[in-house]
Sequence to fold (124 residues):
Amino acid sequence: MARLRPPAFSTASGMVMALSLAACTTVSLQDAMPVSAEVQPAPVDAPAPDPAYTGPDGYPDLNVPMEAAAPQISDEDFEATSAELRARRDGLAARSAGPRASADDLRRPAGSHGAETLKAIEGR
Fold:
């Protein structure tokens, strides 16, 4: 005897009806978070804008020339510092043994490391 299965159309239409009924119920923000739970921001005591940089309409005047926050270095100081840093970089590059020497330094202890570790584990 063959089992009777509900048609796919009725199952799909039942799911659509359930979803559409669920969509009709909305939650307001007041239901989700009561007014008493809201945190009010503290008032900010911001300093008043400098009148020299504010126009007559109260908006900032962006045409005022900018002032440097710190004294600027001269071109001669820049070149001297750059030359000193380049000399240090070149000196470090010349002293470097290169990647080949460091690879050999790592392979040397690798040959005996396994045997030493095995002896330590076995307690010999």
Summary: The CA atoms of residues 76 and 82 lie 10 Å apart. The radius of gyration is 38 Å. The mean pLDDT is 75. Residues 99-122 form the longest helix (24 residues).
